Amino acid sequence: MEQCEASVEACINHDVYAPQYAWDLDDDDPLHQFRTQLTVTGVATHPEERAGDGYELTIYSDNSRRLGETVKDAQARDEHGSPQHRSYRGRQIPIYNPPAGMGLIEKIRGEPRWTAWLHVSPRFVSDALALLSNERSLFLAIHERKSGRVRWVQGLGLKTTDPSEE
Fold it and tell me: Distance between CA atoms of 166 and 154, rounded to whole angstroms?
């Protein structure tokens, strides 16, 4: 990791002033919105085919996003809304429809650079900022999954040890 930029914002939910323009109006959304954005840049060291490529990762956090989903929310449902199960070694286990990912990774065409973004909880950003404030070298580990032509962020870690050595 080479550089980091951070910003925080507090505001009144703009949907209160102009509900006719709201994309996804929900009366349960918070009236006061708090947002944090963290942008991290660096150079890939692993895997070898991407070593030397530049990365820019933008991490968004705000209290208006619903990030409190549970595993139960990912369970497949039948046409009546009942949870689906399948048989496995004599017992019933749930069938899940996992989300595609937490965010996207995209290659900048014609350049050895990648950009990525994802939404996380405010706690994750606070913990990341705490790690960034110390004087140690930091490494970013991105777990990605490719589906068709789209690359998804499956997981993200900010570490004080090189993930390629683990």
Answer: 19
